[in-house]
Write a structure and sequence with these properties.
Layout: H1 2-21, E1 30-33, E2 38-41, E3 44-48, E4 65-70, E5 76-79, H2 85-91, E6 96-97, E7 106-109, E8 122-125, E9 129-132, E10 136-145, E11 154-160, E12 163-170, E13 174-180, E14 188-195, E15 204-213, E16 217-220, E17 224-228, E18 232-241, E19 251-256, E20 259-265, E21 270-276, E22 282-290, E23 299-308, E24 314-315, H3 317-334, E25 340-343, E26 346-349, H4 350-360, E27 367-368, E28 380-382, E29 385-388, H5 389-406, E30 412-415, E31 418-421, H6 422-438, E32 446-449, E33 452-454, E34 459-461, E35 464-466, H7 484-494, H8 500-514, E36 516-517, H9 526-533, E37 535-536, H10 538-551, E38 556-565, E39 568-579, E40 582-586, E41 602-611
Helix pairs in contact: 3-4, 3-6, 4-5, 4-6, 7-10, 8-10, 9-10
Domain Transglutaminase-like: 530-590
Protein name: Partially conserved hypothetical membrane-spanning protein
Organism: Methanosphaera stadtmanae (strain ATCC 43021 / DSM 3091 / JCM 11832 / MCB-3)
């Protein structure tokens, strides 16, 4: 015990002497041998005591590594694990230390505070990101010290909404990480990059934002679906996102002429919906709607379904080519087209065969006939020359779509050589596919024609001559321009008018002034019922206006766009009128509007600039 007292007195003497030379007399200074190691780890300091202070073999002052514990004042307290309570209580008044390193021959420990106070702060540049679920984004962060030096050899963690997604390394001030976004909902996510402490720098967290947008979608389905009345029919479609991947979730609804016939849930983007067809015969509007959800935007497909009362026959690509070769040979021998061509033991009319040929130029899939009708008006006036491949391929698309829409073939088509009538069109395409049949599937570079004319046939009613093959003059399912009530009103409104503009103005003003606006989506009533109700939304008012114009032999169509109204942005439909060799707007839904002058809204983005029929 006497030995301990002597040692303690010696220590206190050294302490008192050193304290007199210190700027802070509350701190104890200790000389440590230059071989002593000073280690700092996570705000905890370890050091080895000088042997001059630890000559007591009774473990009162142990010659071991001792731990510095951080107290609430952000200083460090030495814990020597002393066994002698008297000695510990005596030393307790001088337990706060600072580290001041001198790495020449010795280290002097003075004024100990948190080890982070001697380290540089860092900065992190982490941008915001916008993307879609499933996409790979490149996380590109820049990390520098306070003097702008790139940070090197630091550890980092990348987090999304607080959940660690990757442990990464910082090299030369850069952190680059390719992060594939899971199939997450479209919303905002918090990104966090945590860069750990190094020997010379403090740690730091940086936040930014990842905004996930919904993916746009498209519905891929045949433009014309065939169905036999009172038999089980099928609607097939594939729904893909804008990255050309099939969607993995979603609900769809299927409508015929605006009436829902069923719903279909898809988990793989494939629709294979079956139903019993009870609608009337002919070509009907088929609508497939994919509903918006947390991952994908909605999509709508507006096509046609052809309902016939006979068995639906399907033919292969090779069968169509072989039949074209026989039609070409028949024409060469007999100088005329056959009435029909036999394919797979079925009699196929020339109009149906034209549809099959036009479709086969763009698809090797099996194709069906549809009991299509012949036109009542044909004409021809062409010069000698060639219709080259690009042109006849485009013509084939126009022909097949027209037949799909209206259930009849065009009496004539306009080409670079002039006006080509139906039989000449069938002849030309049969010669093209016969060439393909005999040349291993290769299409000819052109189709040749000789000069030809054919008298024009028209349908005349009273003093009005109507070209019944112009889609902008034809009636449709919702634009009943051939209805007796529509025709009668159109005549009354245009009575005494001497110009197309005056006729169009009278018709437009009637719809604008006498048909009130009603808020609902898409077509609900069509032209005739809207006239009866004296009430309709933008679609039905457009149907009525277009029907009255067409009944007056004025070309009219539709436009569809996203528009800015005072109440916000909405989808909107209005009529287009062909006046003075140009299409002009005619929106009757506001009393402030007139032909060619729309004041009620402004166009934000187009969906359809001009069409002869809307299918929704």
């Amino acid at each position: 015990m006497l030995f301990l007292i002597i040692v303690f007195v010696s220590i206190m003497s050294v302490s008192a002497a050193d304290a007199g030379n210190s700027s802070n007399s509350n701190f104890h200074k200790i000389q440590i041998d230059s071989n002593t190691q000073n280690t700092i780890d996570n705000n905890t300091n370890y050091y080895k005591s000088n042997d001059n202070l630890n000559k007591n073999d009774n473990n009162n002052l142990k010659n071991q590594y001792t731990k510095q514990e951080k107290n609430e004042n952000n200083t460090y307290t030495k814990n020597n694990n002393l066994e002698d309570k008297d000695v510990y209580n005596t030393l307790n008044n001088v337990e706060n230390y600072d580290i001041n390193s001198n790495l020449n021959n010795s280290e002097t420990i003075t004024n100990m505070v948190s080890n982070s106070s001697n380290k540089d702060n860092i900065s992190i540049d982490l941008p915001n990101y916008s993307a879609y679920a499933g996409k790979v984004i490149i996380i590109n962060a820049t990390i520098k010290t306070k003097n702008g030096t790139p940070l090197n050899l630091a550890k980092a963690a990348f987090k999304v909404n607080g959940n660690t997604k990757a442990h990464l390394n910082v090299t030369n001030g850069k952190l680059i990480y390719a992060f594939k976004i899971p199939q997450w909902s479209a919303k905002k996510y918090n990104l966090t990059l945590v860069v750990g402490e190094t020997k010379t720098t403090n740690s730091l967290s940086k936040n930014s934002t990842l905004t996930l947008y919904k993916l746009n979608t498209t519905i891929n389905t045949p433009y014309l679906t065939f169905s036999q009345k009172d038999k089980v029919s099928y609607v097939n479609a594939t729904i893909k996102d804008q990255l050309n991947r099939t969607v993995y979730t979603g609900n769809t609804s299927i409508k015929i002429n605006g009436i829902t016939i069923g719903h279909y849930n898809t988990s793989n983007g494939i629709i294979n919906f079956n139903f019993t067809q009870t609608n009337k015969l002919g070509t009907q509007n088929l609508t497939i709607i994919y509903g918006e959800n947390t991952f994908f935007n909605s999509a709508i497909s507006q096509t046609k379904i052809r309902i016939i009362n006979t068995t639906i026959h399907t033919y292969t690509y090779s069968q169509i080519l072989e039949a074209a070769n026989r039609v070409k040979n028949f024409k060469d021998k007999n100088k005329r087209l056959p009435t029909w061509v036999v394919i797979n033991n079925n009699d196929v009319t020339m109009v149906d065969f034209l549809y099959l040929m036009c479709q086969s130029l763009h698809s090797n899939d099996s194709l069906s006939e549809g009991n299509f009708g012949r036109p009542s008006v044909v004409k021809e006036n062409i010069i000698t020359g060639n219709i080259y491949k690009d042109e006849y391929l485009n013509l084939s698309k126009e022909i097949s779509q027209y037949i799909s829409n209206y259930g009849v073939a065009q009496g004539y088509i306009k080409t670079s050589l002039g006006t080509l009538m139906l039989n000449s069109t069938i002849d030309g395409f049969s010669r093209a596919l016969a060439y393909t049949y005999n040349h291993n599937g290769v299409l000819p570079n052109y189709i040749s024609y000789n000069q030809s004319t054919y008298p024009i046939t028209t349908n005349t009613t009273g003093n009005t001559t109507t070209n019944t093959t112009d889609p902008y003059l034809l009636p449709t399912y919702n634009c009943q321009s051939n209805d007796a009530v529509i025709i009668s009103l159109s005549k009354n409104l245009t009575k005494g008018c001497t110009s197309v503009l005056s006729k169009a103005t009278n018709i437009f003003n009637y719809v604008r002034d006498y048909i009130k606006y009603d808020q609902y989506e898409n077509t609900r009533y069509g032209a005739v019922k809207t006239l009866s109700r004296k009430l309709g939304n933008c679609c039905d008012q457009a149907h009525l206006l277009v029907a009255l114009l067409r009944a007056a032999n004025i070309r009219a169509g539709y436009a569809h766009a996203e528009c800015q109204f005072n109440s916000g942005i909405k989808g909107h439909v209005w009529a287009k009128i062909y006046l003075n060799n140009e299409w002009v707007d005619a929106d009757p839904t506001s009393r402030y509007n007139s032909i060619g002058n729309t004041k009620s809204n402004t166009i934000i983005s187009w969906r359809i600039k001009l069409t002869s029929e809307i299918l929704f």
